[in-house]
Specification:
273 residues, alpha+beta, paralog of FGE (formylglycine-generating enzyme), five-stranded antiparallel sheet, four-stranded mixed sheet, 7 helices, 13 strands, 25% helix
Length: 273
Amino acid sequence: MTSKIMLVAFMLVLAVFIATANADLQFVDAVTGTTFVFIKGGCFEMGDPSGESSDRSLHKVCVSDFYMSKYDVTNEQFRQFQPGHNSGRFEGMTVDGNDQPVVNVTWYDAVAFAKWLSQRSGSNFRLPTEAEWEYAARAGTKTTYFWGDNPDDACKYANVADLTAKKRWKNWTVFNCDDKFVVSAPVGKFLPNGYGLYDMSGNVWQWVEDVYDKRAYTNLPKYNPVNEGSGEYRVERGGGWSNGPLGVRVSHRVPLNPDFRHHALGFRLVMTK
């Protein structure tokens, strides 16, 4: 075998190896077409690096491997489960486009969608835990936002309350940048974080699995923590298109009644094998 033929054979083997490796890094659900990105588990400092918030105290947490949806669940995907779902409008502006993130869904709606998809596909889908969500959102960073500590860089990475919004809502506290969207944007319009996930901050808030507990960060175990205890509220994460610098911090967590619906509240899923 000549050296040229050997080189071609090697390149073919290498191409097959790379394709196989990349296939393991992403998974496409055949029912809804949702793309899931593999997140290698590990340990990180979860919470507020500034130490200003008692319910977000910095502490070490470790999570196992999981897959997270690359984008928020969209209206088009959710309507496969609940035909006719109407995400509605906000002050005359649509938040109901097929490729916009689904909103006006309760925590129970999100859990029901995950259960339906699991039954249809044979895989295990669910909401992310708070720890999984923050681990994925940070993507190895330790800063206030996943893009760094400069709030004025927000509009490259997130649909937030910005100078466009300020023209319409004069009293809003906004980022000093312009993302060109007044309300929710189609998914994937901004730069992803270091794990290739889009809209982890901004666009719409995201339901997570955990019951809200102000003391959860000090009471839960280090490995794969999730608060499944009793409590009136569940947790939302990530901030939305109507939030300024406070709301889209990676550590920010908000308690909500699981029956609550909102024009800037949706969800994304994780898959575990």
